[in-house]
Structure formats: structure tokens, C-alpha cells
Task: structure prediction
Amino acid sequence: MIGNPYNHDISLAITIRFQAMAEKLKIVVLTGAGISRESGIPTFRDNNGMWKKYDARKLASVMGFEEDPQAVLDFYNARRKNLLEVQPNHAHMMLATLEKLHDVTIITQNVDDLHERAGSSRVIHLHGELKKVSSSLDRLNPDCIKEYPLDVPFGRQGSRRLTAAAIHRMVRRIPRPRNRASRHHG
Result:
């Protein structure tokens, strides 16, 4: 008996459909303050947010840093201390689990590392990261951005206070280009 040629086409279509379903989906997730608030990270802009208590122009701008770098560092050191006290919540964990099944990229406005601690590996931070510091001497140089070790004490008596001098010590050994043109030429 000769087989029906249409049966072959149907089998091929079903096989292709199952292969497509088995492929990982590419998913992009946008997150903001709400996802980390549940973990105990205060938001910046809601009704009880940080900017209701503090002046953003003085603590979150280049001008504010130039006027009083230690006040800016003290503000963010308090954020870093809070980061040590919190854990990823169910939403962070679910996104990390989703990454095991699909190709997930998280784009977040948050400066915390709760997505990474939950297990997400492709996280883009739009507003920077609390655990990263850079030198004000060459802040556009990616070689001058360093991981801030939250578990290593800075300052006297083992305090976790990050100072402008400590940041400078962390990045001062990085060779800096003699001029901007040398940075772009091999």
C-alpha cells in the first residue's frame, strides 16, 4: 500500500511545531522599585519615597557630588547597609526560575543586586549599581569601575563607611591613558 503524501506533510508540520515549542523563548522583563520594595528596599519616588525625605539634587547629581562628596557617599552607604539586610523575594526568585526555561534578560531601574542574588544572570541596571563604585578622576573609563565588596570593612574599627579616599585607593592603581585619543586607538 502506498502511503498518503499528505500524511507526511502533516507529520512534518507537527514535528516542526513541537521543535518550535521546545526552543527557548526570548523574554525581556522590565522591573522597577516595586519588585524590591517587598524585600525591604525603600523606593525613591512613591508617597513615602526617599526623595520626600532627601533632596535628590544634592544626593543624586554630579553637582551634588561636587559640592559635598561625603554627603553623597554617606547617603549611598546607608543604601548599601540596607542591601546587606534584605533578601530576594518571591518575584525575584520566579524570574530566576524563568531563566532556567527561557532566554530571559531583565532590565531594571533598581540599583540593588536582588535579581542577581536570586540567580538571574542577564541583568541590565539602568541607573547603576550600589555595589559598584568609580573614580571621579576618570568616571567615563570602564576600567575605573570597581565592585564594592559589601562584606569587607572600610574605614576605622571595621566600619562599612565608604569614603572618597577609599574609592580613590581602590582605583588609583589602574593605568590611565595619557590623553583621550590614546583610549580609542589600539
